[in-house]
Specification:
Largest sheet of chain B: 5 strands, antiparallel
Distance between the termini of chain B: 55 Å
CATH superfamily of the largest domain in chain C: Aldehyde oxidase/xanthine dehydrogenase, molybdopterin binding domain
Strand content of chain C: 15-25%
Shape of chain C: globular
Largest interface: A-C, 91 and 99 residues
CATH class of the largest domain in chain C: Alpha Beta
Number of helices of chain C: 18
Helix content of chain B: 25-40%
Strand content of chain B: 15-25%
Number of domains of chain B: 3
Chains: A alpha+beta (226), B alpha+beta (334), C alpha+beta (730)
Number of strands of chain B: 12
Number of strands of chain C: 24
CATH topology of the largest domain in chain B: Uridine Diphospho-n-acetylenolpyruvylglucosamine Reductase, domain 3
Structural class of chain C: alpha+beta
Radius of gyration of chain B: 19 Å
Shape of chain B: globular
Number of domains of chain C: 3
Number of helices of chain B: 12
Strand order of the largest sheet of chain C: 3-5-1-13-10-11-12
CATH class of the largest domain in chain B: Alpha Beta
Strand order of the largest sheet of chain B: 4-5-8-6-7
Oligomer: heterotrimer
CATH architecture of the largest domain in chain C: 2-Layer Sandwich
CATH architecture of the largest domain in chain B: 2-Layer Sandwich
Radius of gyration of chain C: 26 Å
């Protein structure tokens, strides 16, 4: 080992960079740009016939379309409004991820069994994998990308997850955090037992449950329940 | 998933009209936690889907009425679970809600649709190569002689032993709830006890609802046993799992003996299962642990277990016993 | 060298949802794949009807076994190849297990691909199947007589176990059943494949980027340098991602044929039936103690499942022979061939269940002798390795036990089963078990760059899958160079830089960190040389600028003690090259002691685990925060494996029946009580320059037997299978 006195002094201004894998992160920052380059907003409502909204039909006769877009929906995602052409079969999760490039919500089961896809719909946490995207038409959607401004301060729950090391691989983390924020707002973070119960819809295979509990206990006073 | 046509009415009347115009293969879609899930699995393949989640008139519920509790069919499970009056006056109903699924799913699922959730039998959900009379009538039952740990001990037939997986309906059947429906033929009321069918030789027909009939509300007559109630649910993990066994029980005590008793079982039967056998054991008796044990055993006297689910006879009886001890404590509180 | 408690370096990105996992990559023109899979347990495809699938609008391609001419299997990871199994689906009409892919559909949208895949129809000729250890038709093969290499896969023998056993004063004989279980990392198996000018880029979360590269090179007959694999962060691995998956080459083939990037996200149900899993195993343990209470003999006989097409080796007795100082030991291991996909590694793949079988038997022996289970274990500790006679490089088993007992409050335990029940009738049980795990080492190359702009880059062989390797690397560089950890930019899981040896077997830290440490020391020397006689107290940047250099690169290599330098040739070929626990001069293992409290409800008998104390000897702790999380996670895995998880098999159909996350119940938050983690934190003096052994798997070992022993303490019942569920204690 070296003599300490001869060591160069620490690097000042050492900078952190993203992994140099060759592509930038497609986080929330691209959402706005993406949405604005899509179709213009339409002011009118959907076609109405005899009091019923017939939102299109199956795409059986299409001649190899690039996208079997059945209908358009208006999605209000993280404060941005956009009209999006969707396949009626698509889940909200798949539309967020594949069409809006909001990939923070994750697919872990695709059947409402793991919670990795948790987003807020009109302020409530839901499993976006079991929410047909068409049902989100006109609704307010918040994803992990919308929880705190890019480059700005983290949401207290995000900071608490870091402080308590409430994650390992990170794959379930966006869903955990969205569920945790809702858990506090619902008033279901009153005790350790209650938090554990109301966070049980979010599986964490790495087993970070103790950290998740501690993070919610840390952040809850800053967020406040309803 | 096969393609479908999507229709989104804004009033119940429009929904009924849409269904009448839709014909076979048309389904109502509410929270989606059962139907959309099964569509993804290819187990359900509706041609037309009528999204009823915007029928705001059906989303309200009222637990303060003097004669009955009224739940609009589209009230969210999470809202009902959080209702303060329900927690105090009918803890069994509240617990049956919050012990179901996860908060995410309870925010999506509605109390009417919840009644119609379909079995978790792996051979039903798994598709090919499994034989399943419920999924494909006449194909047989792979669960028989298979992995039947989750299958029914009560109400099964040769054709099907798939468990009714819900919680809410079990609590409702204990309280003699009634379901109001709307169809092109008008409104009618069905006692919850008559809503679900045993499989018999037609396990694909799970309820007494007509295909074009829409549940619009659930009514629960007030009961003196409401406060002395619980929904006790035993699972393979502490939360976010279906019941191995569950019991909705409610008691009213008078002069030291049981004056009113309501016992229903989940996780062990092909439909929400009321147990008059257990209730009869309790009536007129002091609610001791021994009496509770006898009631639990009486509930399973007619059980016919398969290969891997025989333990549920004992577990189910103990679940009832536990539930009765909890209910007694609540009933005794001033 | 003390290591500070720094936050996980990639946590900020993760809590913002900004970390990119495989399926998060959006590429122009991306097409979506979906597999169609066999519905029979064994046989062959007679005909395939893909017309309906091809007619679905948006479908671009349906790949079947008729479209794969010229491709070959990448071989089995443990047979000189690269795959989780040697059977590459779609290379022929034979079906070896239910769930084997028969077609890959590619379409413009996920919805179209999914619809079309469901429309692929096959007719089969069907053979009888055998999918469990005891089923008729299962072939049994003694590992000692198998073609598997020796002595790695020879029987473990020391002294005369059978003779000593028959002479023993007290004996225990128990057979324990281990169920098949699935790793179920939260991130679904997925691949994004893209070709450009004849070169293939694979984005796939993996523990073994190099095996993907070389495996695909073999499949396609390509030079490996035309393939790049990127796996910066995996959403969990747990052994399931340690080799080329069944689908990866098919996705790459589709992308090449279509001339478009293709993404496949494998549905959870298909992962259950078409990726590795922890095989079913059966253990017979016979223990003998002399009149003084010293264990003198142990026999451990194991059968476990493998596929018809591969020999997945067993390595259970290698652990149990070393848990104690038992002079006479005989291990016998046999493979049972079933009609299943090849099973594989799952966290503590052999050690978890081997320890469960062995440590429940040790507990039984302690009871037979009237000894306290902790004291009995302390008294039977090993002085040297029973198998080789070599010393342990470090062994703090007694410290783990004593520290754990103190922290747990073990002295308040009463020995008699059922003696600690609560006033309401709740049964309380306190159990203990030992865990151990090989301290293995793989070869690694580290490259370190410092720039005149103040940037630090380190590239090393390793994969981040949540265990915290990035944080440990950053911490190592930070301490060595005196820089903040967040200043260190880390490249791992990327075959475009240094070779990426398989990260598994808890060797990640002991592999990467010594190489990184050596590189950091080389960097300091190089900077000193550049600094020459210039002014003192300059920053690195100033030294570089003054020397007219934009950056400085250094490289360092590290391999296991006793390995030749030629071992790096294996690494360069993407082949496993790890060594340990037996090194030429010593044996090196990590150890832990697990203390568990269970509570069992008086009537419905639900089993709960309110409290666990885990004391771990893993050598030096380089990253305290992520290390603690590893312990907590390992305990959660132990709880799941002990009380929850089983992959259900229906012998009529093959495959797994409960193939989703609702019916395969892993622990949820409400299942987990208090877990206390403590480290001995004594650097190992021999294993490597950092003094680090391994951590990620030893922390799971011992949890399940401690729970089973605690259940015995609560109920008096000796249970001999996992998972222990409510029906076992009613």
């Amino acid at each position: 080992m070296q003599d300490k006195t001869s060591r160069p002094s620490p690097l000042r201004g050492a900078q952190s960079k993203q992994e140099t894998a060759g592509e930038p992160n497609t986080g929330g920052g691209l959402l706005a740009a993406h949405l604005l380059t899509r179709r213009q907003f339409t002011a009118g409502s959907i076609a109405v016939a005899s009091g019923l909204s017939a939102l299109g039909s199956a795409c059986t006769g299409c001649d190899t379309p690039a996208r079997s877009a059945d209908t358009s929906v208006r999605l209000h995602v993280n404060g941005t409004r956009a009209e999006v052409d969707i396949d009626l079969r698509s889940s909200l999760l798949d539309v967020l991820r594949e069409q809006l490039q909001l990939t923070g919500a994750k697919k872990g089961c695709d059947h409402g069994q793991c919670g990795a896809c948790t987003v807020h719909l009109d302020g409530r946490r839901v499993a976006s994998c079991l929410t047909p995207a068409v049902q989100a038409d006109g609704r307010e959607i918040t994803t992990i990308e919308g929880l705190s401004p890019e480059g700005g301060p983290l949401h207290p729950m995000q900071q608490a997850f870091i402080d308590q090391d409430a994650l390992q691989c990170g794959y379930c983390t966006p869903g955990q955090i969205m569920a945790a924020v809702a858990c506090v707002r619902e008033g279901n973070a009153g005790s350790a037992e209650q938090i554990r119960e109301y966070m049980s819809g979010n599986l964490c295979r790495c087993g970070a449950y103790a950290g998740i509990l501690a993070a919610i206990q840390q952040a809850a006073p800053e967020i406040g329940g309803t | 998933m096969q393609s479908f046509t999507y229709i989104r009415p804004s009033t119940p009347a429009e929904a009924i009209a849409a269904m009448a115009g839709g014909g076979p293969g048309t389904r109502f879609l509410a929270g989606g936690t059962t139907l959309y899930d099964l569509m993804k699995l290819g187990v359900e393949g509706p041609l037309r889907v009528i999204d009823i989640t915007r029928l705001d008139a059906l989303a309200r519920f009222d637990t303060s009425g003097p004669h009955e509790l009224v739940f609009g069919a589209l009230a969210r499970m999470s809202d009902v679970a959080a209702d303060r009056r329900l927690k105090e006056d009918y803890p069994a109903l509240s617990e049956a809600m919050w012990k179901a699924a996860s908060q995410q799913l309870r925010n999506m699922a509605r109390v009417g649709g919840n009644l119609l959730q379909r079995t978790r039998c792996a051979y039903f959900r798994g598709g090919a190569p499994f034989a399943c009379n419920k999924r494909e009538p006449g194909s047989g039952c792979a669960a028989r002689d298979g992995m039947d740990r989750g299958n029914a001990l009560l109400g099964a037939s040769d054709a099907c032993a798939a468990v009714y997986p819900g919680d809410w309906a079990v609590a409702l059947v204990a309280f003699d709830a009634v379901v109001d429906t709307l169809s092109p033929r008008g409104e009618r009321s069905i006692p919850l006890a008559e809503l679900h069918r045993e499989p018999g030789s037609t396990p694909e027909v799970e309820t007494t609802l007509a295909p074009d009939e829409l549940i619009v509300r659930i009514r629960v007559p007030r009961s003196g046993a409401g406060r002395g109630s619980t929904y006790h649910k035993i699972r393979d993990r502490e939360s976010y799992a279906f019941a191995l066994t569950s019991a909705a029980v409610a008691v009213r005590l008078s002069a030291g003996v049981v004056a009113e008793a309501r016992v229903a079982l989940g996780g062990v039967a092909t439909r929400p299962w009321r147990s008059p056998e257990a209730e009869n054991v309790l009536l007129g008796q002091p609610l001791t642990e021994d009496v509770a044990q006898s009631a639990g055993q009486a509930a399973f006297a007619a059980a016919s277990p398969g290969v891997h689910n025989a333990f549920k006879v004992e577990l189910g009886a103990q679940t009832i016993t536990d539930a009765l001890m909890i209910a007694r404590q609540r009933a005794e509180q001033p | 060298m003390s290591h500070p408690d720094i936050p996980r370096v990639d946590a900020r990105e993760k809590v913002r949802g900004a970390t990119q996992y495989t399926a998060d990559h959006a590429l122009p023109g991306l097409a979506h794949g979906m597999l169609a899979v066999a519905t029979i347990g064994r046989g062959r495809i007679l005909s395939l009807d893909t017309d309906a699938a091809r007619r679905v609008p948006g479908v671009r391609m349906v790949l079947t076994h008729l479209d794969t001419v010229g491709l070959q299997s990448a071989g089995f990871l443990l047979g000189g190849g690269y795959g989780f199994q040697s059977l590459q689906p779609l290379l022929g009409a034979a079906i070896a297990y239910r769930g084997q892919p028969i077609a890959l559909v590619v379409a413009d949208t996920l919805e179209a691909a999914r619809e079309a895949a469901a429309l692929v129809r096959a007719t089969y000729e069907q053979d009888a199947i055998s999918v469990t250890l005891d089923a008729p038709g299962a072939e049994i093969l003694a590992q000692a007589d198998s073609p598997l290499p020796k002595p790695a896969f020879a029987d473990r023998v020391a002294g005369d176990a059978d003779g000593a056993l028959s002479a023993a004063a007290t004996r225990v004989d128990a057979t324990f059943q281990g169920p098949p279980q699935h790793q179920n990392p939260m991130e679904l198996l997925a691949t994004v494949a893209e070709w450009s000018r004849g070169e293939l880029t694979i984005r796939e979360s993996t523990q073994n980027a190099e095996a993907l590269r070389h495996g695909l090179a073999k499949v396609f007959g390509l030079a490996p340098d035309r393939i790049r694999v990127l796996s910066p962060t995996a959403g969990g691995g747990f052994g399931q991602r340690n080799s080329l998956q069944a689908h990866t080459a098919l996705v790459a083939l589709a992308a090449r044929e279509l001339g478009r990037p293709v993404k496949l996200v494998v549905p959870r149900a298909q992962i259950f039936n078409n990726a590795s899993f922890r095989p079913a195993s059966r253990h017979t343990v016979r223990l003998g103690a002399d009149a003084s209470g010293r264990m003198v003999a142990a026999v451990h006989e194991i059968d476990h499942q493998t596929s018809r097409h591969d020999l997945f080796p067993l390595s259970y007795a290698d652990l149990t022979a070393r848990l104690y100082g038992i002079a006479n030991f005989r291990g016998r291991e046999r493979l049972v061939r079933n009609d299943i996909q090849t099973p594989g590694f799952a966290r503590a793949p052999f050690e978890h269940i081997a320890a469960c079988a062995f440590e429940t038997a040790v507990d039984e022996l302690a009871y037979a002798l009237g000894r306290d289970p902790v004291a009995f274990r302390v008294a039977n500790d090993a002085a040297t390795d029973p198998l080789t006679g070599r010393p342990f490089s470090s062994r703090h088993v007694v410290a783990c036990l004593e520290r754990g007992a103190e922290r747990f409050g073990w002295e308040r335990r009463t020995q008699a089963p059922g003696s600690m029940r609560l006033a309401d009738g709740t049964l309380v049980g306190w159990g203990v078990a030992l865990g151990a795990y090989k301290a293995a080492t793989a070869p690694a190359i580290a490259m370190l760059r410092v720039t005149d702009a103040g940037e630090i880059f380190v590239s090393v062989g390793g994969h981040e899958m949540g265990q915290g390797i990035r944080t440990a690397i950053a911490s190592t560089v930070a301490v060595d160079l005196g820089v903040p950890a967040e200043a260190v930019n880390i490249l791992v899981g990327n075959t475009g830089s240094v070779p990426q040896h398989l990260t598994a077997g808890s060797w990640g830290a002991a592999t990467a960190l010594p190489a990184v440490h050596k590189a950091a020391l080389n960097m300091l020397r190089e900077l000193e040389r550049l600094a020459g006689n210039g002014p003192a107290n300059r920053t690195f940047q100033q030294i570089l600028r003054d020397a007219g250099r934009s950056h400085v690169d250094v490289e360092a290599r590290h391999h296991a003690p006793g390995q030749p330098d030629a071992i790096f040739d294996r690494v360069a070929q993407g082949l496993p090259a790890a060594a340990g626990p037996a090194y030429p001069d010593f044996v090196s293992m990590s150890f832990c002691a697990q203390f568990v409290e269970v509570r069992i409800e008086p009537r419905t008998r639900r089993i709960r685990v309110p409290r666990v104390v885990s004391v771990v000897d893993c050598g030096r702790v380089v990253s305290p925060r992520t290390a603690r999380s590893q312990v907590l996670g390992g305990v959660v895995w132990g709880i799941g494996a002990a009380l929850r998880e089983v992959s259900e098999v229906d012998p009529r159909y093959g495959g797994f029946v409960n193939a989703d996350l609702a019916e395969y119940v892993i622990p949820v938050n409400a299942d987990i009580g208090t877990i206390e983690a403590e480290f001995i934190d004594e650097p190992d003096p021999l294993i490597n320059s950092m003094g680090v052994k391994g951590l990620g798997e030893v922390v799971m070992v011992g949890v399940a037997p401690a729970i089973v022993n605690a259940i015995h303490h609560a109920t008096g019942r000796r249970l001999r299978h996992l998972p222990v569920r409510v029906e076992d204690v009613l």
